């Protein structure tokens, strides 16, 4: 059993402090020295993992971190013996964002690529990836018919509500508000410095939205790159937009703060509107508001702009 604590990265409430317990099997042998590892998230559907690991090893990754679900635990002892560079991680009731956080703490290289177990890398290798300081490079993603998918997103904000407009890759360096499905090449130190994904949000879509907005609010960049091309083997999983409690926290952390001069704050005048939206009662809403207000104060000088400025970066719908 390993429990990693990133004490230096304590500016995001509960993100890296006291992470969830998890078990690690294997993965002690470093396969290559590219500085890039790959993280494989588990969709829950069994796939031929031996074939996947063989393909990933050929692409020159240092380590393979593979998350294991309840339905895919049965063969990890045999796979661990056959693939000593694969680090299997078993955890209970952990969100996808938390899994990526765990992987970032487990690894030590400069970059890590996140994919799912129903995907294959069509273009790019660990040595060919652009190893710059951008927080995240979003690859070109295709479906099982090798058709490009609209997996880049522009934010649209209207009267305190936020929506995203999907569009396809057109040119190198296009911005995206978040990495679709969490898929992307992450610069590890930037990821840790940002605070990773907020584990208090149970819904992965809102974890992605919070991560992406925070990144742009704090001056980081999430952009598209054609140097990596990935394909789904199965169908694309639709977004789950449920979770009103997740939206409330997302709103307070990302849409409600006001940026003035060189810092941001969450003014009390935002509370009446939040109370109206939350529908959770005065005292519950006030407690939630004050906790996030303290978080904004703690990180006030990390903000570089406000949410409206982030939306204006796209200059309208592509």
Structure commentary:
With 318 residues, the protein is an alpha/beta fold. The protein has two domains: 23-232, Spore Coat Polysaccharide Biosynthesis Protein SpsA, Chain A; 244-312, no CATH class. Helices cover 29% and strands 23% of the residues. It is built from nine helices and 13 strands. The protein has helices at 49-58, 76-82, 96-106, 188-194, 204-217, 244-255, 271-278, 282-298, 307-312; strands at residues 23-26, 36-41, 64-68, 86-90, 111-116, 119-123, 136-142, 152-158, 161-167, 184-187, 222-232, 258-260, 263-265. A nine-stranded mixed β-sheet has the order 1-4-3-2-5-10-7-11-6, sandwiched between helices. Strands 8-9 form a two-stranded antiparallel sheet. α1 (49-58) links the parallel β2 and β3. The termini are far apart.
Any descriptors?
318 residues; alpha/beta; Spore Coat Polysaccharide Biosynthesis Protein SpsA, Chain A; 2 domains; 9-stranded mixed β-sheet; two-stranded antiparallel ribbon; 9 helices; globular
Distance between the termini: 47 Å
CATH architecture annotation of the largest domain:
Alpha-Beta Complex
CATH class of the largest domain: Alpha Beta
> So what's the overall shape?
globular
Could you spell the SSE succession in H and E letters? EEHEHEHEEEEEEHHEHEEHHH
How many domains would you count in the coordinates?
A: 2
Strand order of the largest sheet: 1-4-3-2-5-10-7-11-6
CATH fold description of the largest domain: Spore Coat Polysaccharide Biosynthesis Protein SpsA, Chain A
What percentage of the residues does DSSP assign to strands (E)?
Answer: 15-25%
| Structural class by helix and strand composition | alpha/beta
**Poorly predicted spans:** 1-14
